[in-house]
Amino acid sequence: MKLVSVHPSLLDKYEKDPEVLKKAKRPYVLVIRLKYKEKRYDFAVPIRSNIPAAAPKDQYFALPPRPTTRPRNRHGLHYIKMFPVTKEYLIRYRTEGNEFATLIQNIIDKNKRTIITECQTYLDTYAKGIRPSYSTDIDFLLSLLFPNDD
Alpha helices of 54-136 — where are they, by DSSP H? Predict the structure, then answer.
Protein backbone atom coordinates (compact mmCIF):
# COMPACT_ATOMS: atom_id res chain seq x y z
CA MET A 1 0.00 0.00 0.00
CA LYS A 2 1.23 3.43 -0.79
CA LEU A 3 0.19 7.04 -0.44
CA VAL A 4 -1.19 8.49 -3.66
CA SER A 5 -3.14 11.45 -4.96
CA VAL A 6 -5.97 11.03 -7.43
CA HIS A 7 -6.03 12.83 -10.77
CA PRO A 8 -8.67 15.60 -10.87
CA SER A 9 -10.21 14.05 -14.00
CA LEU A 10 -11.37 11.05 -11.94
CA LEU A 11 -12.85 13.33 -9.28
CA ASP A 12 -14.65 15.19 -12.10
CA LYS A 13 -15.97 11.86 -13.43
CA TYR A 14 -17.28 11.07 -9.94
CA GLU A 15 -18.85 14.51 -9.35
CA LYS A 16 -22.43 13.17 -9.36
CA ASP A 17 -21.75 11.28 -6.13
CA PRO A 18 -21.87 13.98 -3.44
CA GLU A 19 -20.01 11.74 -0.97
CA VAL A 20 -16.80 11.52 -3.01
CA LEU A 21 -14.34 13.91 -1.39
CA LYS A 22 -13.18 16.41 -3.97
CA LYS A 23 -10.33 18.20 -2.20
CA ALA A 24 -7.45 18.54 -4.64
CA LYS A 25 -4.15 16.95 -3.61
CA ARG A 26 -5.74 15.00 -0.77
CA PRO A 27 -3.63 11.98 0.17
CA TYR A 28 -5.21 8.56 -0.29
CA VAL A 29 -4.03 5.09 0.55
CA LEU A 30 -4.12 2.82 -2.45
CA VAL A 31 -5.45 -0.60 -1.46
CA ILE A 32 -5.09 -2.98 -4.35
CA ARG A 33 -7.01 -6.07 -5.36
CA LEU A 34 -9.96 -5.93 -2.98
CA LYS A 35 -12.93 -8.13 -3.81
CA TYR A 36 -16.31 -6.53 -4.42
CA LYS A 37 -19.22 -8.62 -5.74
CA GLU A 38 -16.94 -11.40 -7.01
CA LYS A 39 -14.55 -9.08 -8.91
CA ARG A 40 -11.28 -7.50 -7.81
CA TYR A 41 -10.67 -3.76 -7.91
CA ASP A 42 -8.18 -1.24 -6.62
CA PHE A 43 -9.58 1.31 -4.16
CA ALA A 44 -8.43 4.71 -2.98
CA VAL A 45 -9.15 5.31 0.70
CA PRO A 46 -8.99 8.99 1.67
CA ILE A 47 -6.99 10.23 4.62
CA ARG A 48 -9.22 12.73 6.41
CA SER A 49 -8.23 15.07 9.19
CA ASN A 50 -11.73 15.54 10.63
CA ILE A 51 -13.66 12.30 10.83
CA PRO A 52 -16.59 13.01 13.17
CA ALA A 53 -16.11 11.73 16.72
CA ALA A 54 -19.44 9.89 16.44
CA ALA A 55 -18.21 7.76 13.50
CA PRO A 56 -18.25 4.05 14.39
CA LYS A 57 -14.76 2.57 14.89
CA ASP A 58 -15.27 0.06 12.06
CA GLN A 59 -15.61 2.91 9.55
CA TYR A 60 -12.07 4.25 9.89
CA PHE A 61 -8.47 3.46 10.81
CA ALA A 62 -7.18 6.06 13.27
CA LEU A 63 -3.93 7.92 12.66
CA PRO A 64 -2.16 10.53 14.84
CA PRO A 65 -4.01 13.87 14.66
CA ARG A 66 -2.87 16.60 12.30
CA PRO A 67 -2.70 20.26 13.32
CA THR A 68 -5.95 20.74 11.35
CA THR A 69 -7.80 18.00 13.28
CA ARG A 70 -10.47 19.67 15.41
CA PRO A 71 -10.93 18.68 19.05
CA ARG A 72 -12.77 15.35 19.51
CA ASN A 73 -12.57 14.57 15.76
CA ARG A 74 -10.37 11.84 14.34
CA HIS A 75 -7.66 11.79 11.72
CA GLY A 76 -7.46 8.60 9.71
CA LEU A 77 -8.40 6.44 6.75
CA HIS A 78 -12.13 6.83 6.21
CA TYR A 79 -13.42 3.57 4.74
CA ILE A 80 -16.94 4.83 3.94
CA LYS A 81 -15.41 7.39 1.54
CA MET A 82 -13.33 4.85 -0.44
CA PHE A 83 -13.87 4.55 -4.17
CA PRO A 84 -12.67 2.38 -7.04
CA VAL A 85 -9.68 3.62 -9.01
CA THR A 86 -7.47 2.49 -11.87
CA LYS A 87 -3.74 3.07 -12.15
CA GLU A 88 -4.14 5.70 -14.88
CA TYR A 89 -5.74 8.08 -12.35
CA LEU A 90 -3.05 7.76 -9.69
CA ILE A 91 -0.45 10.41 -8.97
CA ARG A 92 2.55 9.77 -6.75
CA TYR A 93 2.19 11.44 -3.36
CA ARG A 94 5.56 12.86 -2.37
CA THR A 95 6.65 12.15 1.19
CA GLU A 96 10.28 13.25 0.86
CA GLY A 97 11.09 15.89 3.45
CA ASN A 98 7.60 15.62 4.95
CA GLU A 99 8.05 14.05 8.38
CA PHE A 100 4.33 13.69 9.01
CA ALA A 101 3.69 11.98 5.66
CA THR A 102 6.63 9.63 6.34
CA LEU A 103 5.17 8.83 9.79
CA ILE A 104 1.77 8.09 8.21
CA GLN A 105 3.37 5.83 5.58
CA ASN A 106 5.24 3.94 8.32
CA ILE A 107 2.04 3.43 10.35
CA ILE A 108 0.22 2.22 7.24
CA ASP A 109 3.07 -0.18 6.42
CA LYS A 110 3.03 -1.62 9.96
CA ASN A 111 -0.76 -2.03 9.90
CA LYS A 112 -1.16 -3.22 6.32
CA ARG A 113 -2.95 -6.48 7.18
CA THR A 114 -5.39 -4.75 9.54
CA ILE A 115 -6.22 -2.04 7.00
CA ILE A 116 -6.74 -4.56 4.17
CA THR A 117 -8.94 -6.75 6.40
CA GLU A 118 -11.02 -3.78 7.57
CA CYS A 119 -11.44 -2.46 4.00
CA GLN A 120 -12.47 -5.91 2.78
CA THR A 121 -14.92 -6.33 5.67
CA TYR A 122 -16.44 -2.93 4.85
CA LEU A 123 -16.83 -3.89 1.17
CA ASP A 124 -18.36 -7.28 2.04
CA THR A 125 -20.90 -5.61 4.32
CA TYR A 126 -21.60 -2.90 1.75
CA ALA A 127 -22.17 -5.53 -0.98
CA LYS A 128 -24.84 -7.11 1.25
CA GLY A 129 -26.74 -3.81 1.19
CA ILE A 130 -25.63 -2.48 4.57
CA ARG A 131 -24.55 1.02 3.60
CA PRO A 132 -23.67 3.67 6.16
CA SER A 133 -25.01 7.18 5.80
CA TYR A 134 -22.61 9.45 3.90
CA SER A 135 -20.86 6.54 2.16
CA THR A 136 -19.82 6.68 -1.48
CA ASP A 137 -22.03 4.82 -3.98
CA ILE A 138 -19.58 2.12 -5.05
CA ASP A 139 -21.89 0.52 -7.65
CA PHE A 140 -22.55 3.88 -9.32
CA LEU A 141 -18.83 4.76 -9.27
CA LEU A 142 -17.90 1.40 -10.80
CA SER A 143 -20.45 2.02 -13.58
CA LEU A 144 -18.69 5.32 -14.33
CA LEU A 145 -15.20 3.83 -14.15
CA PHE A 146 -16.06 0.74 -16.22
CA PRO A 147 -19.04 1.82 -18.38
CA ASN A 148 -18.93 -1.27 -20.62
CA ASP A 149 -19.02 -3.83 -17.79
CA ASP A 150 -22.25 -5.61 -17.04
Answer: 99-110, 112-127
